[in-house]
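Hi C.,

You asked whether I'd gotten around to modeling the 560-residue construct. I have! Everything is below, sequence then structure, no commentary in between.
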Amino acid sequence: MHLSSLKSGRARSKRASRIAACTALVLSAGMLLAAPASADDAKGADAKGAEAPKAVGSTPRMDITGDGESDILYQTREGYLFQSVGGTVADYLFELHDPADPGGRIVYKDIIAPGDLQGDGKPDLLTLTASGTLTLHPVVGMDPVGGPPTWSGKGWQKYNKIVAPGDLTGDGQNDVIARTPSGDVYLYAGNGHTEGEPFEPAVKVASGWNAYDQIVGLNDSTGDGIGDVVTRTPAGDLYFHMGTGDAAKPFKVASKIGYGFDTYNQLVGVDDINGDGNGDLMGRTPNGDTYIYRFSGYGHYRARIHGTFGWQKAAMFVGAGGVPDFGKHGVMGVTSDGSGYWYHSKNTGEFFARSGEDGAYFDEGWARVAVSLGDDGRVDNLWVRNGRLYIAGHAISDGWNIYNDLIGPGDLSGDGAGDILARDAKGDLYLYQGNGKGTALAAKIKVGYGYGSYRHIVGAGDLTGDGRADVVAIAKDGTLYLYEGTGKASTPFKARVTIGTGFDIYNKFAAVGDLNGDGKADLVGVNGYGDLYRYTSTGTGKLNKRVRIGYGFNTYKALY
């Protein structure tokens, strides 16, 4: 069943839709799921074995077209925003007209849909850049266009999740919650303004939420007018956090309502899909299929139904709960004659066919590929020629001929800017902090020694689920070590931890960013036969079992 078919009946009057919805609820009273239930369970009963209470309902958070229903907005790998209307109609390009992005080049780290913050009946959007700048964009009219920003705030890189749950305080204003890497949750209550400061000062309202790898705002799913939240553990357990309306303690004690939800790489709050007034949930599998979970009004979901397919096109759903974009989603292979070829991610765990041009570009010195060093979220090339470092073709500084390896794993210092690691012939490791623009580097800081014993040192994003960049290294005996990021420039890594053995079979190894659409860093290796293997991250610092995804990669002398 297509997602659009769920909404086809909504063209009728709201009264007719409500009658149909109530009838559907009565007919399905025996089919409501009791918690906990598996992600694909198709039978069960609700908590009371009766029809859910009549829903109060809430204003859709992303009603761009003004028809009273939430729309789906998503960002592609290239950074383009599209609005999906479902069915066979082509998706619409959505333009934000961000003055900070006149060329449309920014790939936002996250996009949050808080809903209508100022009471004009139109949704607002929040965009987050890698450097931690959060910007408010009102939606203009009924066209897929974002108006000029009305507010912008810095310092939001201190959070690894920013979520819009709806109205948590019961004052009719939509709110935002944000989680730190340590698991503390802060409430930013909406004040009804979009010019000036749109949120009240942060208030800590929960802790221990670092146990969850996804946090998704449902809007109101119980019919009391208060926003609710679902969270998922890396193991796939689903928890329901019912809103209370109390700003000091906005959530009731969490209840486990499902398991097996690790089958999805993204969960998305889609508001009310079937017209019963309750916020619903959508899950996407790595192959791009989606499933809809309609909430019953008691904090439990009904049997899932198949939504649409082909959603691997979405690198990130707006409102998905803060799945970050780390600025690298692929790998470059370099041949012996210096030609470079890109393999871009399909967002399914595999690569598209290679793209690139022949030419001895990489014979003119030596190069590496780094996670974005600017605020645009796009990969940057590091190039050393005659001892001079170039970033994206711009000369930075001299003296780099003392190093035999460069690594660009992302932000290691916690300031939101991408950084560089450099290893010298003695095995000493140095950190160069970026300026967030890719145009300059701070003075080097020695952060380790003994790194000459590694045959590969790579990194491109978060392996542990805390939102901080991590690095892995393969020793000469094949042991794979994890260096978990701390977010501190002086000591950017925790003590190393063994996470694998036997990795000496790979003569090429690379960090490729997120390959399967779950926002977690993945790794690839090439063995002596030229076979390419993928290791996806669990988000806990461990790796899933390897999967072969290519062959013939022995044509390359290196992967970056």
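If it helps when you're writing up: The radius of gyration is 24 Å.

Thanks,
B.
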